[in-house]
Amino acid sequence: MFVSAIPHVDYNRWVVQEDWKYTDLSSAIEAIPYAMWFYLGVEELPLASEETIEPAKNVPRGLLMCISTLTVLSFGTAVFSSLISPGAAAMADVSAPLVTSFQTLYGTGATTTFFKWMTVIALCSSPNSYVFFMGQLLFAIARDGYYPKFLAYEHPRRGTPVGAVLFGTISCVLIAVILHYAIGDDDLGSVLINLTLLGALISYIFQLLSFVYLRYRQPNRPRPYRSPFGLAGAFVGLLLCGISIFAILYTSVTDTIFLASIVVTVLVFVAGSMYFFRVVLPKIQNNTLGSPVTTKDMNENLLSARSQVLISTGA
After folding, report:
1. Is residue 273 part of a domain?
2. Whole-number Å distance between alpha carbons of 6 and 238
3. HSE-up (13 A, CA, CB side) for residue 253
4. In terms of residue numbers, what domain contains 76?
5. Are 9 and 80 within 8 A, CB to CB?
6. Would you say residue 130 lies in a domain?
7. SS in 3 state form for the chain?
8. What is the pLDDT of residues 215-238, one digit of tens each?
9. Is the residue at 30 inside a domain?
10. Would 70 be classed as within a structural domain?
11. Phi then psi for 193, rounded to 5 degrees?
């Protein structure tokens, strides 16, 4: 698509004359949350390490491939979709800019229909991956004793984290339904994006701070994978997280509808903090918290689950 779009590119016609050229910093700040949406979720790939062959080697490769692909596709889609017909102004109101670009380049025939279906298949894989990683994350935390035990419940034969998947899915649907009745549908998608990004950014900050802490306190600890960016990369990441949170807050405080994303985020973290200080912290202090599962135990559990699946399927 990108190669086909090059002959149709016209910055003056589709950006300047549409009065959509860069004008001020405020607009750029407001666009940051939506730019982040391109890359949200790629950091969850390591949660599939238990299902990966040679994870110390293949997970970093997978991350590099994902980030490289996302970078090319995100920049290519944003740039070329804005520089061809119907132009940047029209694209701002289009729900599927990639499909609109296909129609501009290939018309409404079989080629565009083929690419539409390919886009649908790609979109179907996206929510499925989110559900998978959500279940893995909740299950891993519950398995270590920090979340209620029912979240660590697995399917007896297939090893699926049933409790975590059901709880996470129901919680997300409830939040979406509540916001639907609270603010309506016009801005619901944007509010949910801000809500998701706020939660993700806060978790990134905690992960980066944990990385810095472990690098300082346990510099010689054996690690199957070491970040090539080291502490400098962690501090740059913290800076970017701060800028991104500022961009979301900058957008939200100027619009009462978008304040809903901040309110929901605060409520979720307050509830989580109360649970930690009332339930988890006393267990840590009394040494009654379940010990984290070791790598050996995880591998044994994984092999056992896979063997049961193979037996049940007759493979």
Report:
1. no
2. 37
3. 6
4. 1-108
5. yes
6. no
7. CHHHHHHHCCHHHHHHCCCCCCCCHHHHHHHHHHHHCCCCCHHHHHHHHHHCCCHHHHHHHHHHHHHHHHHHHHHHHHHHHHHCCCCHHHHCCCCCHHHHHHHHHHCCCHHHHHHHHHHHHHHHHHHHHHHHHHHHHHHHHHHCCCCCHHHHCCCCCCCCCHHHHHHHHHHHHHHHHHHHHHHCCCCHHHHHHHHHHHHHHHHHHHHHHHHHHHHHHCCCCCCCCCCCCHHHHHHHHHHHHHHHHHHHHHHHCCCCCCHHHHHHHHHHHHHHHHHHHHHHHHHHHCCCCCCCCCHHHHHHHHHHHHHHHHHHHCC
8. 999 888 887 778 888 899 999 999
9. yes
10. yes
11. -60, -50
Q: How far is CA 279 from CA 40, 228, 272, 288, in A?
A: 31, 37, 10, 11
- Residue 13: which of 87, 116, 72 has the closest Cα? 87
Q: What is the CA radius of gyration of the chain?
A: 23
Count of structural domains within the chain? 1
What's the pTM value of the predicted model, to 2 decimals?
A: 0.78
Task: For the chain, give the number of residues.
Answer: 315
Per residue in 252-291, pLDDT tens?
777 777 777 788 888 888 998 899 899 888 888 887 776 5
